[in-house]
Design brief:
The structure holds 2 protein chains of 2 kinds. By secondary structure, chain A is an alpha/beta fold. Chain A has a single domain, classed as Ribonucleoside hydrolase-like (Inosine-uridine Nucleoside N-ribohydrolase, Chain A, Alpha-Beta Complex), CATH 3.90.245.10. Chain A is 42% helix and 18% strand. Chain A contains 14 helices and 12 strands. In chain A, strands 3-2-1-4-5-6-12-9 form an 8-stranded mixed beta sheet. In chain A, strands 7-8 form a two-stranded antiparallel ribbon. In chain A, strands 10-11 form a two-stranded antiparallel sheet. In chain A, strand 2, helix 2 and strand 3 form a beta-alpha-beta unit. In chain A, helix 5 packs across helix 8, helix 10 packs parallel to helix 14 and helix 11 crosses helix 14. The N and C termini of chain A lie far apart (40 Å). The relative contact order of chain A is 0.15. Chain B has one domain: Inosine-uridine Nucleoside N-ribohydrolase, Chain A (Alpha-Beta Complex), CATH 3.90.245. Chain B is 36% helix and 17% strand. Chain B has 12 helices and 10 strands. Chain B has an 8-stranded mixed beta sheet, with helices on both faces. Chain B has a two-stranded antiparallel ribbon with strand order 6-7. In chain B, helix 4 links the parallel strand 3 and strand 4. Classes of the chains: A alpha/beta, B alpha/beta.
Amino acid sequence: MTGHRIIIDTDPGVDDAAAILMALASPEIDVLGITTVAGNVPLNAALANACRIVGIAGRPDVPVMAGAQDPLLRDQVLGKYALIGAFPERLVGRGAVEPAAERAAGFIARQAREAARTGCAITICAIGPLTNIALALRLHPEVSQGIARIVCMGGAFTALGHRVPWAEFNIYADPHAAQIVFSSDVPVVLFPLDVTMQALFDAAHVAHIRDTGGEAGTALANLLSEYDRSDPVRYGRPGGPLHDPMTIAWLIAPDLFEGRRATIGVQVDGQTSGHTYADFTDHDARTTVMRQVDEAGYITLLTERLTHYGTVAALSHRGSKGK
Amino acid sequence: MDTTLPVIFDCDPGIDDTIALLGAFVSPELDILAITPVCGNQPLDKTLRNALQICELGGRPEIPVHPGCHRPLCREPIHGQFHGSTGLGNTVLPEPRKQAEPTSAVECLIDHLGRAARGAAPKVTLCCLGPLTNVAMALRMAPEIAGGIARIVMMGGAFREPGNRSMTSEFNMLADPHAARIVFSAGLPMTVLGLDATHQVMLLPEHVNAFARSSGPISRTVAELMAFWDRNDARRYGSRGGPLHDPLVTVWLLRPDLFQSSPARVFVETESPLCLGQTVADWFGKSGEPANADIVTHVDAQGVIDFYLHLLARYARRGAA
């Protein structure tokens, strides 16, 4: 597979941080930019966190942009761990990059339109509420032509009861935006809770990330320890899921996943707003819903990719000795 | 007036949009920063082309025209029923020489309003004659621009009057109810000229004749557009003629003394299939929410017609430029 040119649209968020670090450590992936949106945390915290993650990844060349601070229509809901706010320095260290001036939706639209003209379509990894992407799609009809696919963490079909009994958070937080994205002509590869909850990272995995991932690995391990995501009652075993990096893992190693085509829809209004439904009998659907993951393969891929930061640190340490 | 009022016309021309713009073009009180056509009465390619042609017809080719959103936010597009297949009735205007700007309407709004919000330019009055998609998009992409909006003066909604496109809903609201909800929720000063106001000003055949006599070089076009506008439906409107919807926005800017309004909280229905786009006004504080709009309730109809005749007569004085 040739390289993917991607934009990560994100609301970091601990598992968002893992996804960003994984993407920035992967040679198959060219991250054009990181666009932030209110979701897990308010927009200013999401932007600050993205800037810190890109900073500890040592990638000031990747622009980080502010996006929507409110959902299109519904009242704002923030993540279960919204109290995290901006990641504290004691967990992720110093060295944030400065955000770029361009607006998220404008950046997505501009990149997609350029891609439509050059025939070199981009991929969007959407791991927060879909507000920015919906806005970008409405800015110009060419935008959808320049997007090869939207790889989205969102929705739930059988694994309900994550945030509310009827919906997964990213869709619940902006159901109108989700409906705009799902009804566009861009193919969607969807990672619902049904698949993301199949892979659990336990204390040993976190320790491994801390030991091998350099400064970035330490920061991520700090975040994972501080905001523990495990839920033995729900999952029946120790460990917590890392939802968002699955979108990146799929771009690198699609064979780790098994999905089916399905037409999907979103309940935008009323008491069950944010509920996603799927028709798995529609084999010509544009959307692929992921259903199975090779848990060990996914965990290994993520942790291996994060060792990049350990290696870079070792190299630069050796290099700086002579200075 | 000592200084001019900076305005942006967000519109979907449209016959009545055309008349509204032609009136604004000859009003030195207004500094028209831009025109931002949107998908509405007609698809975007036609409303954009019409806007360019209208600028040339009105002798204002220097006004920048920025292409707006190509479709509503959530619902599928609907278009107007009384504007003919081009949006300008049977009127054929010359191919525009003028080009649309490369930047979009949303970028234009964010740029102008953002500058005003930062205090680097005076606040802008937004004149909204079509579905509110462009404005809603700009507000969601850059909420800080709200600080650069002096007021939104809009044609849209139906309060004590029934709808004109569905039983409950006025066209601009029905065409993008979600955008309307975003704009009404933004906490901005708003003046709303709904059907309650616009149905008070019927453009009668004798008015059309008067405009045809007085509007100088654009007389023939204006008369043609106005004649096409005649609904010829006395059962609905109480007389012949067509309601002068969008031009009331232009008149309100210049002669607010011709209008009376009441503050109310306006809610826009976005969920019900039956009442989609309905604007519900809370006149008496039943909702517990503060007023978010001044709804025009009474119009001096004769005053408006007389003023508009006076306005378009400026084209006669300007001569066949």
